[in-house]
């Protein structure tokens, strides 16, 4: 009888040890500070402390604790866990099934990719689907306070600056709240005539492409040649923290030590966006643009901002060449132009872009 009792006790002890061993085979490690956006959820580490690989499904839920609203639920199927620390493959995360809350919290996340502000609970659940430990469930939740961050802002060189510095220093203001361990990448390219800032940054070879910057000040690298006087450059800074990326606006500056003394008439470069200013012109309108398509007739229109009911017709013809264009329009030949009135010039490019500039017409010679 005693032997039987001892034998049963040994079996029960082994079962208990086995249960404790299995329940501790999968652990989650997650920094809630990274959970301010959807991409940050993929930074969770799933640790398999066992000796055998698992296959299973991973569920991620984010809940607003104050309102008890489920903000988002993510379902990722067939996630393999090898022994040791595992991360979610990027392809798995991007192809996951996502359910957003029907209210304002879910709509905000769907439209911006950012979690709503407040006390959030991040829950991770892994359900085993492989034969060993079938339907075994491992889960863990983490609490965090999410504050909507301020944008990453460039400081110097200022946007539109003309500076006599061929080796300028770059400074920016970090996004707040500041996340520890954030690295910055700075990219600087030369802008060609007719290019937008975004086109230059995307297409042109970088003059500076520096990664893993720890602070918010970056001196001009000693190994890089001086910038060229008279050239315009665009730059951008990107913050990176374990896969969570945040980019600044794109700014431009021009290296200009001496002002041009040429008596030649200047041509205003047209842009797609209205910068709020306007061009004061005499009886001749001069503007510049870049055409990457074939040559042809320039399509444009002029509208009277001071008197919108008065239509401007019978505009002089102008030709559009491939490449850089300096175009002159003799406004004295346009019927209905009125002295000291404001007008809007719109140019319709072959690639679908619409370029514009506001100008003030005067009859006085320049």
Structure described in brief:
This protein has helices at 2-23, 90-94, 104-112, 197-203; strands at 26-29, 45-48, 54-64, 69-81, 84-87, 97-100, 118-128, 137-146, 153-156, 161-163, 170-173, 183-191, 206-213, 217-218, 232-241, 244-247, 251-255, 268-269, 278-281, 284-291, 296-297, 299-304, 319-320, 323-330, 342-348, 354-361. The chain has 366 residues and is mainly β.
Walkthrough of the structure:
With 366 residues, this protein is mainly beta. The chain has three domains: 2-146, Immunoglobulins (Immunoglobulin-like), CATH 2.60.40.10; 153-255, Sandwich (Immunoglobulin-like), CATH 2.60.40.10; 268-361, Immunoglobulin-like, CATH 2.60.40. The chain has four helices and 26 strands. Strands 10, 12, 13, 15, 16 and 17 form a six-stranded mixed sheet that branches. The longest helix has 22 residues, at 2-23. It is elongated and about 85 Å long. The N and C termini lie far apart (118 Å). Residues 1-24 have low confidence and may be disordered.
